[in-house]
Design goal:
With about 60 residues, this protein is mainly α. The chain has a two-stranded antiparallel ribbon.
Amino acid sequence: MTLEESAEYLRISPSTLRRLIHKGEAPYQFRPAGRKMVFRKIDLDMWANKRVQEGKKNDKR
């Protein structure tokens, strides 16, 4: 998926996804030929689920 498609899938803005990538927090790959950033749905799902689980751990007060 493209950056825009991935942001829509995650229900965040493309700029938020770019920021997360820049911080090294979001999964992405480069397509070798055009050095275009691409995202795999399975990677996004695993990453989002991990963030939800971490959030639940941090909510336990």
